[in-house]
Write a structure and sequence with these properties.
eight-stranded mixed beta sheet, alpha+beta
Length: 171
């Protein structure tokens, strides 16, 4: 079953990353404040294009969406999955919200839909997120969604990342 390319939550319209998103992706991933909890340093414009290419061509299916505000059309952030491990039946998710939208409940809205996509369209029982230990807002979001702290399911990119896991079935 193919993953839908267009998704919606009450306030957001999701679509796959496109080459035309270069400026928004660059703004998102080059901003030092946005990147303070990322495992990679702020990017250059060429790096932003590589991010788009990476997510548009991997595994022949949608892996990352850009999210726009339904009412204004403004870019809000991105979300998706990576590190799909079919033999272990788990996948890592990632998300980022542009700082103008922090603290407005967007990830509480997005996370259930992203979990639904993983449960419905991917051969997984478990979803995990590696989150910087100081990113209290993100930890609170996953905790509220039912994730629990666990030893990492893959080697973290930095020593500052902790792993949070969500099981669709009991392990």
């Amino acid at each position: 079953m193919l993953i839908p390319t267009i998704l919606r939550t009450p306030r957001l319209h999701w679509r796959p990353m496109a080459v035309s998103d270069g400026a928004a992706i660059y703004r998102q991933f080059s901003d030092a404040v946005m990147c303070r909890y990322f495992s990679e340093p702020p990017c250059r414009y060429a790096d932003a294009q590589d991010i788009i290419t990476h997510y548009r061509t991997r595994m022949g299916r949608v892996m990352r969406w850009v999210m726009h505000d339904e009412a204004t059309g403004h870019f809000v952030g991105t979300c998706g999955y990576h590190y799909l491990n079919e033999s272990q039946r788990h996948v890592e998710i990632g998300y980022d919200i542009w700082r103008d939208y922090w603290g407005q409940g967007y990830m509480r809205e997005v996370l259930p839909k992203l979990l639904e996509v993983c449960a419905t369209y991917l051969p997984v029982d478990t979803v995990y997120a590696l989150i910087h230990r100081d990113n209290a807002a993100s930890i609170q979001v996953v905790r509220r969604a039912g994730f629990v702290a666990t030893p990492p399911l893959r080697t973290p990119d930095t020593a500052d990342e902790c792993c949070w896991v969500y099981h669709f079935t009991q392990p």
